[in-house]
Design goal:
With about 120 residues, the chain is an alpha+beta fold. Helices cover about 30% and strands about 30% of the residues. It has four helices and seven strands; from the N terminus they run E-H-E-H-E-H-E-E-E-H-E. This is ADP-ribosylation/crystallin J1.
Length: about 120
């Protein structure tokens, strides 16, 4: 018996060392709950935008910035319209903090670190 794999969408997330440590503690399979001042989890739609945030925001804030890549079931993501947060390529998904557990259930495979900036 074979199982049919659902189509996935690749997303990226720029992150700092504290959040990445929590991802690692999950076995690289889940994003941690948001802090009270973080009502939205925002993965981004392209690698270049994630690099800019990690390099230009995370490094000055914490000395290091990471870009992660991960897959999510495409059908599940349809509930989150793509948000243009600036220019044409500044595209994000806005996942309400209270939906992050469900979002994590639709991750496929592991969260991977693909870039590191210091």
């Amino acid at each position: 018996m074979t199982t049919q794999q659902q189509p996935t969408t690749t997303l990226w997330r720029p992150t700092g060392p504290e959040e990445l440590a929590l991802v690692a503690a999950s076995g690289w399979r889940a994003w941690p709950p948001r802090l009270p001042e973080q009502p939205i989890f925002y993965p981004v739609m392209n690698e270049d935008y994630a690099i800019r945030i990690a390099r230009d925001w995370n490094v000055p804030a914490s000395g290091i910035g990471y870009v992660t890549r991960f897959e999510v079931e495409t059908e599940f993501l349809q509930r989150y319209p793509v948000q243009q947060a600036g220019g044409r390529t500044i595209l994000e998904l806005w996942v309400p903090a209270e939906e992050l557990d469900e979002f994590n259930q639709h991750l496929v495979g592991r969260i991977q670190v693909v870039h590191e900036f210091r």
